[in-house]
Amino acid sequence: MGWLAGKRPTDLGVRGGRLKPAPSTPNAVHSQVKGGIHAIEPFGYRASRHDAMEAIAQIVAGMKGARIVARSDDYLYAEFETAWLGFVDDVEFYAPPETKVVHVRSASRLGHSDLGVNRRRVEVIRARFSERGL
Questions:
Q1: pTM to 2 decimals?
Q2: Rounded distance, CA 27 to CA 66, Å?
Q3: Using CA atoms, how far apart are residues 7 and 10, in angstroms rounded to an integer?
């Protein structure tokens, strides 16, 4: 990890059906937030939850700077390290049972603004996910 990686958060994951809240800074997106600068749509799917999460894992694993840290049937946590200065963003995906959506939270560990990097990354993942027709 780069010198600006920051410390890995110890409070990530799903608690009570929710991902960690978005930070007060604008360097994050969160699909369980309604309105405001952090709001982003979850990923919808028609296939099985297993297939949806497997597709996300494959997409993330193939992206530059990505490293999958934790994975289960309904959750995936990855770190994305930037090539420039080694900033790290924490990205989580959560597929609650019987909902046909995958929630996403993507947040920078350090700094105030990410210049839209987290939002663009999630939208790239969404586009690649949509291309699979799940």
A1: 0.94
A2: 18
A3: 9
